[in-house]
Write a structure and sequence with these properties.
The protein has about 130 residues and is an alpha+beta fold. It has a domain at about 25-105. It has helices spanning about 35-45, 45-55, 95-100, 110-120, and strands spanning about 55-60, 65, 70, 75-80, 80, 85-90. The chain binds iron/sulfur cluster (2 copies).
């Protein structure tokens, strides 16, 4: 998910380094205690500081999620995303849900992106989805 290093390895059919980071623009990216502890260690801050700086409690879903920041392409994106380089700033310390995505060798967002880029004849084109 959203790394410059997680490119087409192990036969993956997607290349995060060529993607603007669709998966990081989900409004709800659930995190648990281990995820927050990992972020705290990464930033050398306390658990409470990591929790308040990078996460929020979603009242409707009743889960803790990563906070977001404004993004020119998607409206909002994860607070831990570098909106200029289009990659995760905490890749080695990213939450478990980010590690698990996209759960297979293919990424639907990447296939959508490739299709749109071919249609536009522009390999830099950034298509948006209904979620954005
Ligand atoms: S949407 Fe897919 S290709 Fe894009 S950053 Fe996420 S996992 Fe990588
Ligand atoms: S922690 Fe990194 S990989 Fe996970 S949503 Fe945020 S920017 Fe994306």
């Amino acid at each position: 998910m959203a790394s410059s290093t997680a490119t087409k390895k192990s036969g993956n059919q997607y290349d995060c380094s060529k993607c603007p980071g669709y998966c990081c623009s989900y409004p709800l990216i659930e995190v648990g205690k281990r995820d927050i502890a990992r972020l705290a260690k990464h930033f050398e801050i306390t658990y409470a500081q990591a929790e308040s700086r990078y996460t929020r409690f979603d009242r409707s879903e009743k889960v803790r999620s990563l906070k977001q920041q404004d993004d020119r392409h998607f409206g909002k994106i994860c607070k831990l995303f570098d909106t200029r380089k289009r990659q995760c700033t905490v890749y080695e310390a990213r939450p478990g849900v980010c590690r698990d995505y996209p759960d297979g060798k293919r990424c639907g967002y990447y296939e959508f992106l490739q299709f749109e880029r071919e249609q536009q004849g522009d390999d830099k084109f950034i298509a948006t989805t209904d979620n954005n």
